[in-house]
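Morning!

This is the sequence you dropped in the shared folder:
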Amino acid sequence: MEVHTALVLTVQLIALFSIAGALLLYLLCKVKGSRNVSLDPRCGSILITSADTALGLQLSTYLASKGCRVFAGMKDPVESLPAKLLKGWMKARENHMELENDCIIGQIVPLKIDVTKEDVLREATEKMGAHLNAGERGILAVINTAGTVFRGRIDTQEFQEWENMFKNNVLGCLRVARAFIGLLRPTR
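The structure's back. Tokens below.
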């Protein structure tokens, strides 16, 4: 790997992990629960922009198991592998809770989200608003796990790949912030 490519990739990974780490730390401080204690059912709602990623999928299941309603964004919330995994996880959890006579708290609501398309984000905000309870004024957090990375040497990559990466990783974050700020403000 060329030195410049390695440097660019390293800077991007550091930025990505710093953002993800800061958000996780924030959420864990908000959640404040041990593994054995479930959160109050009124924990709130959280949006994860891409449950298509391993990190997004794990965050979705973890936060739902702690009592939060998780809006899990996916490119295809019906037929994709992550959507099927989340449906299977929820079904297995329901069966487990029925066997132990526990009430089910927390849930995962799959949503179609594409951070590069403002119209899809607008539709997602409307669907989220329809899922909020009467007493719920907004969502607690937005965790942006959507992003792309193109590996390889800079001199052999197409410029289009870099434009797509910028469109997803930078402009996508700004689009998400602008689309969901209205749902975040009431919870402050």
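Headline: The chain is about 55% helix and 10% strand.

More detail when I'm at my desk.
O.
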